[in-house]
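Whether sequence alone determines local backbone shape is best considered at the level of individual chains. In the encoding step, the backbone of a single protein was reduced to a row of integers, each denoting a local shape. For completeness, the protein is quoted in full, as a sequence line and a line of structure tokens.
***
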Amino acid sequence: MEGCGEDGQVKLLGVTRSPFVARVRMALALKGIHYEFIEEDISIQNKSELLLQSNPVHKKIPVLIHNGKPVCESIIIVQYIEEAWDSKAPFLMPRDPYDRAVARFWSAFIDDNVFPSIVRAFRGQGEEQQKAGEESVENLLLLEEVLRSTGKAYFGGDGIGLVDIALGALLVLIQTVEKVTNIVLMDTQKSPLLSAWADQFCKADKVKNALPDRAELFVYLSARRAELTSPPPRN
């Protein structure tokens, strides 16, 4: 989609298999913001000059470019979208300052605790993998309690908000890691509310089309897992 008109010029640098890029695509779709998606080659030697110039510190996707100004890091970008288009419904963050701070806390928890434990479960073997899997389940159980406390369909209340986007974009990754490794990360018996939320989230309009490509992610993670578990070559 070409960014123009009242939204200004909006570009998104990313790849379709990335859950972090998915977060930004979800926020843009929910807000109804038109943008140009630029598919990046993120291998070290092939990163575009636009990406390197836009994110010179981390040199990573996603990057949102709004009227020539780059914004980096997925959660920061989602918050930027909410603030830059604050007159456009739906609202992705609570209006109350305390509730907004709580949403930021749990979004940070997802990035600092949930995602790393999933990565360790994917990369690990044996006891290390089992421990990481158990840690993932425990982290998600905390989010089960958060969802229970809201008494609503979403972490954001009656509609999708920042925490929903932060965790929801990881759902395809979680499901694919479970499939590739044959371990349980989201236990439906231990976290029934979270499981029901996940099903509902993935079917939500404007969200489902922004989710990472399942087939592409499965091929990519299967190849990476094979590399990680292959015995070292003999000299």
